[in-house]
Please model this.
Amino acid sequence: MRKIAQEDLVTSIADALQFISYTHPVGFVQALRRAYEAEVNTAAKSAMLQLLVNSRMSVLGHRPICQDTGTAQIFIKLGIEVQFYRIDQKPLESLQALINEATRRAYTNSSNPLRATTIADPLGGRENTKDNTPGQLFCEISEGDLLEILVVAKGGGGDVKARFATLNPSDNVADWVIKQLPGMGAGWCPPGVLGVGIGASPEQATLLAKKSLFEPIDIDLLRARGAKTSEEKLRIELYDRINALQIGAQGLGGLATVLDVKVSTLPCHAATIPVAIVPNCAATRYIRFNLDGAGPARFEQPSLDAWEGIPDNFYLETAMRVNVDSLSKNEIKDWKVGQTLLLSGKILTARDAAHKRLVDLLAKGKALPVSLEGRFIYYVGPVDAIHGEAVGPAGPTTSTRMDKFVETLLSQTGLLGMIGKAERGPETIASIQKHQSVYLAAVGGAAYMLSKAITHSEVIAFEDLGMEAIHEFELKDFPVIVAVDSRGNSIHKAFKIHPD
Model:
């Protein structure tokens, strides 16, 4: 019988959530560097360089890789010979209660606060729980006396793109997966890893896909030695076919949409092939550890060799510097899709909740709390600032969620442009063209680096919305790529990406 203190489990999970918030797995960094070095598409290469710079800054600065610090997803394999006890002699608590305490402790850590994203009452008030609880617990009872833990911080951009289908036995699994990729768009922030779960039941297939994401990236080794199983053959086929789509980094085109494909299977009913896919984004965050009763787990910073040679900051000589404080529609007419800009000046922020309030005020004929005339809106919900920061990590959120508000704002407020990530829908592109506006893409997954280009932040409306309040940011050389120009040309449309 192995005895483990419940306090050690809480401390270990809390520390792990903190650690992975700023530390990419080394294998992911190495795979991203290989993809960057091989890339020939200018916009995609620029995006991957920003991801690499951000990764280096985060591991050195101990600040989140992405502003979406994810939901806490904890996978526990509990041996039947493990016995829990309390150091403080209090009654034993449930695993769920322990996971919640660890999540609360990690996300409210004053030295590195993480953004609380979880909302309660999803069909009603949708109020933020403020501490990212409850954590999501997955527990498997096994033989022996081992306590194995996998701690994951999974962002919404990846999980929202999950797909499931029950195929017929004669259907081609690879063909079905390939058909899903364009509709998934770029909101999951490629390049990343795609998990494929096949077999069992719908919920088990999806869990297989999810868990497969947290294995080391090894597609190059697999390709070198050759496939030995059906699963390995499918991995290689999907890797080649997905990257041949040229969706590329951030959906900007290019050679690397996935860095690896994982396939996991279980037996299933003879009349079905349950298939699920789940992507993992450029903010890949997970770690495994065991507890043996000797105290909490310790997480040491990995060797910095994987980050050696990555620049301290992002800089592109061909980028055009732009002062957004003095922009006019005539000036943005000259911007072309794929062009990199460095923005300076003052912009506003707004996400889903703020957009809803703005549109509701306009519908009632009421004045807005801030003028949008000639302004840019950045779709972002930043992490809280610490230690003199102007703002915490502040990367873009998925823009398609704001599509339904665009025509109203462009037609009634004089809004000049928008900044976000991933593609826009056809109606939104038409509206941008109609109003001679522009949509700029910032790199999803480069939140800490982007925050360093924000020199001042102030909440100016809807303070009760927390991270979704309207802020005014002052920028200095904030990097973006022209994704939809004033003539309605879209960089994502060029690479056959379309939202669902």
Summary: The chain has three domains: 1-24+65-155+284-291+305-310, 157-282, 320-494.
